[in-house]
Structure formats: structure tokens, C-alpha cells
Design a protein that fits this description.
Blueprint lengths: L8 H5 L9 E2 L5 H10 L4 H16 L14 H10 E2 L4 E7 L5 E6 L5 E9 L2 E5 L3 E2 L17 E2 L2 H15 L18 E4 L9 H12 L11 E5 L3 H10 L3 E5 L5 H7 L8 H9 L10 E7 L7 H10 L5 E7 L13 H13 L34
Parallel strand pairs: 1-2, 6-9, 9-10, 10-11, 11-12, 12-13
Antiparallel strand pairs: 3-4, 4-5, 5-6, 7-8
Bound molecules: iron/sulfur cluster (SF4).
Length: about 375
């Protein structure tokens, strides 16, 4: 197994040919947008106010036409329309499962495609978003892992997934309607789609900061979960710079098994990963770490695995999400019998950990965990 080289976003985030012309406001941090407005001629004294007004139009009201931003002067709107765009990824397809799950295939700059999944439940609506086209890593149970990394998504392309689906759900307030007057359809975000979010840290951070901004989408940090396969250096940084909830793709209770399932384990084995989790700055009983555990028949589903798992995580406030394996074409694994999964869950539960078994959602549209993949392949080197 070749050494895993850390990916810098500079190489992979920026599309080969930067689009010429107006700057896209979607995905800019507040500081970046303020600087861009001033560079476009907004008087410094007004910049903060203008920023707040534009921010609310885009992220609170879902308005992307400068002309419709009626609390801005006509002349100023014309300047904005000349210098900026409000551009979102394009929805190429939208499938709705018999269980209500929605899967979107969206196209981003350069013609690349990623998948986004919306999972409605009684008390919440969760959006599973992607952070990379393909993935840096090659987890053997994951469909995305068979797709080489093409590039990192920009912050605009990450938050764009949230905006697109809010739009599709019709979740923007009506004119005159205050924030929070109706229950949210999109109430939770999980960074569990395509890609390893900690190998695209800055863009994921900026996008999630936008999602948490109280003047815009205003999602609580506790309703955002970032899932990592175990990029140890990025774990503490997640708490310090994003502050959202943390999940870890654990899946194996020995280094031998976990290295086969999650190859990054060869770089940061179980002991190093658990040390980082024990030191997680935001760790508490009210902010538990979620251990994702895909159930693979005859691989990691034994009683010994369950007992070893609870021994390994002792002392970490945690819950264990058990994910019955979701097959994909050519997958080398099978889902265990229900009885086996239930017995595993009971052992973990009796040891004092919540061990919910995730109900597969959207299987009929290949939207379940580990099933995402887009047709985009890394371009042949010849065309560079
Ligand atoms: S599980 Fe996550 S990190 Fe692993 S290959 Fe799939 S998308 Fe990448």
C-alpha cells in the first residue's frame, strides 16, 4: 500500500481554468465578502451594513437576483450585478426513493459531478453532503472509495448543496415571514457524502461557518456532524475551528482488519486515533463522538469484535452507529443476518453505549451509506 501523501487543497480545489469575470458570492466568508464589496467600490463605512443585507438575501431568504434585493439602492444593485454572481451547482438529476429519501446529482465547475442525499424523518431532515469529487482514500466497503479523487470542492460548492436542497424543499421564508416561524425541513447536515472532509479542511470549515451563521441558514453547530475516516491531525482542529459534532469511520477493532477496510489506519492506527479522540476538546456526555461501524458479514461482526470495540473506546463519551452494509455493484462484502447485527448491538448496549442500528434509506436509488459514486473520473493527464 503506497504511503498516503497529505493532500493540499491548493492543488486540487481550484479548477484547472479559473472562471473569468464576476466573483461568486456563494461560499465567501464574511471577511472575504466584505473585502470583495469594498474592492467593487462599496464605501468602507457602509461595507458591514451592505454585507449584512446581501448575506441575509442569499442565505436567509434564498434570493439570488440582485435586482430583487429591494433594501439596496438601484444603482448599487446594478454595480453588484456587474461585478458579482450568485452561482450554485447545477442539479443534473433528482431521484426520490419510495421511503422519501432524495438523491441529487449535481454538477460543479469543470463539469464534475457529486451526489447529495436528503433523508426526511419524523423529527428531522438530514442532508448528507459531499466535500470531494471522488475521494482521497480507498475504503474497501465504500463505493466512493472506488472513484479516484478528482478535486476538492470549494466552500461555495459545499454550501451550495445546502442551498440547492433548501430551495428544492421550498424552505425559504415567505416575504414578511420571520426566521424559525415554521419547522425546518432541513434541520441537520452530515459531512458523510463523497470524500474525506478533513482532506479539504479550509473549504469545509468556511462552508460550515456559513451554515451556522445566525443571520443566514443559522443551523446550530450541534446539528452539524463531520465524519472522518481518521485524519488525526484534523480532529482537534475540527473542534477549534468548526465546533461541530464529530463522527469517526471506525469499522474495525484490530489494526489488521481496520487497515484493510480503512487504509488510512496504516498512517494513523487505532491507538493514535483513540488518543486524538480522547483529547477532543469538545468531548462531553452531552457532546458524544459517534463511532460509525459498518456491519460486514464474517469480517467485523463477531461477539469478540463487539466486546473488543467497547474495551477500545472505554472512557470516551460515545455512541455507536451500526450500519448494515449497503451493497453496490462489485462490492466484496455482504450484510450480516439481522440476528447477528442485533446481537452485536445488544453487546455494545449492555456495555453502556447507545447502539442504534441505522435503517438503510434510499437503497432503491443507491442513496444509502457507502453507495454514492458519480461518473466523473480524473481527466487523462494528456489534456492538462
Ligand atoms: S468512507 Fe469516506 S473516506 Fe472512505 S472512501 Fe468512502 S468517502 Fe472516502
Amino acid at each position: 500500500m503506497p504511503a498516503i501523501t497529505p493532500i493540499t487543497q491548493d492543488v486540487l480545489t481550484i479548477p484547472r481554468a479559473l472562471p473569468k469575470g464576476p466573483v461568486n458570492l456563494v461560499g465567501l466568508t464574511r471577511a472575504q465578502m466584505r473585502a470583495a464589496l469594498i474592492a467593487a467600490g462599496t464605501p468602507e463605512k457602509q461595507a458591514k451594513m451592505r454585507l449584512g443585507q446581501i448575506w441575509q438575501w442569499i442565505y436567509q431568504k434564498g434570493v439570488w437576483d440582485f435586482n430583487a434585493m429591494t433594501n439596496l439602492g438601484k444603482a448599487y444593485r446594478a454595480v453588484l450585478a456587474e461585478r458579482f454572481v450568485i452561482a450554485l451547482p447545477n442539479v443534473i438529476s433528482r431521484q426520490i426513493s419510495s421511503d422519501g429519501t432524495r438523491k441529487y446529482l449535481v454538477r460543479i465547475t469543470g463539469g464534475h459531478e457529486v451526489e447529495v442525499v436528503y433523508i426526511p424523518e419524523e423529527d428531522r431532515g438530514t442532508l448528507c453532503i459531499s466535500s470531494q469529487v471522488g475521494c482521497t482514500l480507498t475504503c474497501s466497503f465504500c463505493h466512493t472509495g472506488t472513484q479516484k479523487l478528482v478535486r476538492n470542492l470549494t466552500a461555495g460548492e459545499i454550501i451550495g448543496q445546502v442551498i440547492l436542497v433548501r430551495d428544492d424543499l421550498g424552505e425559504w421564508p415567505d416575504p414578511g415571514e420571520g426566521m424559525g416561524e415554521r419547522p425546518r425541513l432541513l434541520s441537520n447536515i452530515v459531512l458523510m457524502g463523497m470524500g474525506e472532509p478533513l482532506y479539504n479542511f479550509e473549504n469545509v470549515r468556511d462552508a460550515m461557518k456559513i451554515a451556522m451563521d445566525p443571520e443566514g441558514i443559522s443551523l446550530s453547530r450541534r446539528r452539524i456532524t463531520l465524519s472522518t475516516s481518521g485524519v488525526v491531525p484534523g480532529i482537534a482542529r475540527t473542534a477549534e475551528e468548526i465546533g461541530c459534532m464529530l463522527a469517526v469511520s471506525f469499522h474495525g477493532t484490530t489494526d489488521e482488519v481496520r487497515s484493510n477496510l480503512v487504509p488510512i489506519n496504516r498512517k494513523w492506527p487505532i491507538a493514535a486515533l483513540l488518543d486524538a479522540l480522547r483529547a477532543y476538546p469538545k468531548l462531553s456526555n452531552s457532546e458524544r463522538i459517534t463511532f460509525e461501524y459498518v456491519m460486514l458479514k464474517g469480517v467485523n461482526d463477531s461477539d469478540e469484535d463487539a466486546h473488543r470495540l467497547v474495551r477500545l473506546i472505554r472512557g470516551i463519551p460515545a455512541k455507536i452507529n451500526l450500519i448494515p452494509f449497503n451493497a453496490w455493484p462489485g462490492a466484496p462484502y455482504e450484510r450480516p443476518e439481522w440476528g447477528r447485527i442485533k446481537r452485536f448491538a445488544d453487546i455494545v448496549y449492555k456495555a453502556g453505549y447507545a447502539s442504534p442500528i441505522r435503517t438503510p434509506r434510499g437503497e432503491d436509488i443507491m442513496a444509502a451509506c457507502g453507495q454514492l459514486k458519480s461518473a466523473t473520473e480524473r481527466a487523462r493527464t494528456t489534456c492538462r
